Amino acid sequence: MAASKSHPPQAPRDKAAPAAATPVKKIRAGMGDVEAETVEVWSDDDYRRATGLLSILREDGSADSDALPALDAVALRDIYRGMVRIRIIDDRLMTMQRQGRIGFYAEARGQEAAVIGSVAALVPDDFVVPAHRELGAVLFRGLPLRSFVAQLLGNANDIAKGRQMPVHPGAPRALNYLPPSSCVATQLPQATGIAWAAKILKKKTVVLGYLGEGGTSAEDFHAGVNFAAVFRTPVVFLCQNNQWAISTPAASHPACASMATTCSRCTRPPARRWIAPAAATARR
Question: Considering only the top CATH level, what class is 27-47+72-283?
Fold first, then answer.
């Protein structure tokens, strides 16, 4: 009897040759290879770390030696100098703003460690996409203080020549620092786009996108984070919860218990993701 086209004859199970094991190419998410068949994403331990509390300092002010990062004395001094510098600058410039000598200013009081510590972990090829309280990051990356203050005053030493409102300094392209965004969360799809481009170009670039907790209620946050999760882009979203989104208290706008779990449905996929070879071929 002729075999139908829909049901070709099958070899007996006991006579079938064992399939040769084929090594599967595996990479960490966002490491610049768009053709890998499997991608490592969140593990259960990763999720616990993301939603739990990591603290190096104990309540009595002593440090947990096991959690201390391996930094040399030079790096520690640079980080400390960056934090003290932005605190002093904030004090001076907030006074000038209250006096009416500059039109607008947004300080980072209490957030210095989050800003400087995170940008210090990057390498020069990485990108920084700030909100409006990460001015210490561009100074840490090398923007001269003279240019920074000139931007607030809008004088001839401003790199952007007065084309941006105060607290939105431009920076030389070599610093890979985008002008800050004070429109809540609009910078996050841009951060994802830069990271996606780096992945397509097979670069090991990482993009750091800052936001306040109020940004998690903005549509651009969900667009940027979901796109990043779908395309596995090498972008880090750093949410700083200072309890206030301008004049809106943090307790009044999210419907979740923690900002860290606001988008857990789109940022925590299974521990392994398999892309069928046929589908991978079609995408190429």
Answer: alpha beta
